[in-house]
């Protein structure tokens, strides 16, 4: 018996879409300067010297520079306490020259990261990390979405993946990734199952999924044998050496659509951050109405 060869999964590439979002954000930033004489400004806050975090902050600041967005860099020593960090962020929240605030995650373990995130004023929460933003996102109200989840749904939209009526399995429940992406998929009428470290029989649950979001933070964790043939697989992991949370080669042979690492979800994260920064500046400076394509804003859920 010959087994017919299955074509490889179609790749959902984020690089091009992210570039388009950045170009559009740059145009809007320039238009805002034309109308108000002010450039959007993103404050980036890094605590400590974790090399990966420093790289991500540098990438964000470089993209800001390219898009005509000012960035203000606040680099605090690893020993900074919660109270000091909260004060610094509250100062940025009160500063009219700053339109968006990003606190790079993770912060050193002795800091209460949630308290620090909550010091970001909702109007400046362009990274979508506060409970306010989570609430508005979950209820489909105007606000900012968490950037990677927002990038994921934009990528799905761009590739014509409609989650409506599909069984979506989210592996991971972190506050800025797993939880919010499940909410955004729910708002798009998916039937959402969250899996996490206490989930039993993960492969069986993943095997029933039409759409899998891997946000677990462990390299090559999701096996190709777990996947339903033809499933849409979003790999939100990023590990040294360009490895994601999904065993890419094995998944590619089974999935219908798959995001690569690098070049999938990662670039979308920064594009959404900049798009939301421009929107925040427009709103604070009395610029144009918000972009109708704004990141992943869900409809109001009904039943
Ligand atoms: N406050 C936040 N902290 C963190 C977030 C976040 O959204 N807000 N996300 C991640 C890290 N992250 C941004 O901070 C991030 C990760 C990866 C990429 C990316 O573009 N990766 C590239 C590869 C980059 C390279 O190594 O050359 C890709 O996947 O193609 C962007 C942003 C945790 N912290």
Summarize this structure as a short list of keywords or feature phrases.
single chain, 303 residues, alpha/beta, 10 helices, 13% strand, globular, disordered C terminus, binds the ligand Nc1nc2c(c(=O)[nH]1)N[C@@H](CN(C=O)c1ccc(C(=O)N[C@@H](CCC(=O)O)C(=O)O)cc1)CN2
Low-confidence stretches: 292-301
Q: Secondary-structure element order, as H and E? A: EHEHEHEHHHEHEHEEHEH
Terminal residue distance: 48 Å
Q: What structural class is derived from the secondary structure elements?
A: alpha/beta
Average pLDDT level: 94
Q: How many β-strands, per DSSP?
A: 9
Largest β sheet strand count, sense and barrel closure: 6 strands, parallel
Q: Which small molecules are bound?
A: the ligand Nc1nc2c(c(=O)[nH]1)N[C@@H](CN(C=O)c1ccc(C(=O)N[C@@H](CCC(=O)O)C(=O)O)cc1)CN2
Radius of gyration: 19 Å
Provide a count of the helices.
10
In percent, how helical is the residue content?
Answer: 25-40%
Shape: globular
Summary, kept brief:
This is Bifunctional protein FolD. The protein has ten helices and nine strands.
Give the topology, please:
Elements: E1 10-11, H1 15-36, E2 41-47, H2 51-67, E3 70-76, H3 82-94, E4 100-103, H4 113-118, H5 131-138, H6 147-158, E5 167-171, H7 178-187, E6 191-195, H8 202-207, E7 211-214, E8 232-235, H9 248-252, E9 257-258, H10 265-285
Parallel strand pairs: 1-9, 2-3, 2-4, 5-6, 5-7, 7-8, 8-9
Helix pairs in contact: 1-10, 2-10, 6-7, 6-10
Domain Tetrahydrofolate dehydrogenase/cyclohydrolase NAD(P)-binding: 146-284
Binding site for NADP(+): 172-174
Pathway: One-carbon metabolism; tetrahydrofolate interconversion
């Amino acid at each position: 018996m010959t087994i017919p060869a299955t074509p490889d999964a179609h790749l959902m590439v984020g690089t091009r879409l992210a570039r388009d979002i950045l170009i559009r954000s740059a145009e809007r930033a320039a238009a805002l300067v034309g109308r108000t004489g002010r450039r959007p400004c993103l404050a980036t806050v890094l605590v400590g010297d974790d090399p990966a975090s420093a790289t991500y902050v540098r990438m964000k600041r470089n993209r800001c520079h390219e898009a005509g967005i000012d960035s203000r860099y606040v680099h605090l020593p690893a020993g900074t306490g919660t109270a000091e960090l909260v004060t610094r962020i509250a100062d940025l929240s009160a500063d009219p020259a700053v339109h968006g605030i990003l606190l790079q995650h993770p912060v050193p373990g002795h800091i209460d990261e949630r308290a620090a995130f909550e010091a970001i004023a909702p109007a400046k929460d362009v990274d979508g990390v506060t409970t306010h933003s989570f609430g508005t996102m979950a209820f489909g109200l105007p606000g900012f979405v968490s950037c990677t989840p927002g990038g994921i749904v934009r990528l799905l939209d761009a590739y014509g993946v409609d989650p409506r009526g599909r069984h979506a399995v989210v592996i991971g429940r972190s506050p800025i990734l797993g939880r919010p992406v499940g909410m955004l998929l729910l708002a798009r009428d998916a039937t959402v199952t969250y899996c996490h470290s206490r989930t039993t029989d993960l492969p069986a649950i993943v095997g029933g999924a039409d759409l899998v979001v891997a946000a677990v933070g462990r390299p090559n964790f999701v096996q190709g044998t777990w996947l339903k043939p033809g499933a849409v697989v979003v790999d939100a992991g990023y590990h040294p050496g360009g490895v994601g949370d999904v065993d890419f080669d094995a998944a590619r042979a089974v999935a219908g659509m798959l995001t690569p690492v690098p070049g999938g979800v990662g670039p979308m994260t920064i594009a959404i951050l900049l798009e939301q920064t421009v929107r925040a500046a427009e709103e604070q400076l009395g610029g144009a109405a918000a972009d109708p394509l704004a990141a992943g804003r869900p409809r109001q859920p009904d039943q």
